[in-house]
Design a protein that fits this description.
heterodimer; A: mainly beta; Immunoglobulin-like; six-stranded mixed β-sheet; three-stranded antiparallel β-sheet; B: mainly beta; seven-stranded mixed β-sheet; four-stranded antiparallel β-sheet
């Protein structure tokens, strides 16, 4: 069965501090992993996906198949990064996204 | 351009009432998805359309839930005889082509359903 686990419900950091939002998954095949973000009063939107190997808004995420993890990292958090972050998995043969429960990131000045 | 739109944004229903939630996908998007997001949870997949064909409805929680997309554009999610456990935000998403994983899913603002 597919499962996405985000162990932290809430993560609070100071502005300028590094941030890491954890995501672990269970899936027997080779999934595609995503991070979605929802800013206050905005809709859910794609932040980044592992196949693109890109950095968006200073965030990066590396797929670690050995540890089945896809942690989201940013070296210097900004106040505008405060939002709800969801890790999601898409099986390679499917299309529906399987989301974790989300982590609320709060960046304080 | 216009993104995915959903209506109504908020719906309050008495237990036992039927409700209909509408989704307008991005023009030209082939794939359309419905998700249910309970309070404090991530979105959970309900059903998927490719054009007018409902290819997967495995996530619909009961036969009280019904979705359609008759002309391959607008979709309606209908819930009959609503129960309190149906209270959630219902999200619609669309993607450009045939639901391949690499296609970005664009989400609507959601409809918050409260069943009293």
């Amino acid at each position: 069965a597919q499962r996405v686990t985000q162990p932290e419900k809430l993560l609070s950091v100071f502005k300028g501090a590094p941030v890491e939002l954890k995501c672990n998954y269970s899936y027997s095949g080779s999934p595609e992993l995503f991070w979605y973000v929802q800013y206050s009063r905005q809709r859910l939107q794609l932040l980044l996906r592992h196949i693109s190997r890109e950095s968006i808004k200073g965030f990066t995420a590396d797929l670690n198949k050995g540890e089945t993890s896809f942690h989201l990292k940013k070296p210097f958090a900004q106040e505008e990064d405060s939002a709800m972050y969801y890790c999601a998995l898409n099986p390679n043969s499917g299309y529906a996204l399987n989301f974790g429960k989300g982590t609320s990131l709060l960046v304080t000045p | 351009g216009a993104g995915v739109s959903q209506s109504p944004r908020y719906k309050v229903a008495k237990r036992g009432q039927d409700v209909a939630l509408r989704c307008d996908p991005i023009s030209g998007h082939v794939s359309l998805f419905w998700y249910q997001q309970a309070l404090g949870q991530g979105p959970e997949f309900l059903t998927y359309f490719q054009n007018e064909a409902q290819l997967d409805k495995s996530g619909l929680p009961s036969d009280r839930f019904f979705a359609e997309r008759p002309e391959g554009s607008v979709s309606t999610l209908k819930i009959q005889r609503t129960q309190q456990e149906d209270s959630a935000v219902y999200l619609c998403a669309s993607s450009l082509s045939g639901g391949r994983p690499k296609d970005t899913q664009y989400f609507g603002p959601g409809t918050r359903l409260t069943v009293l």
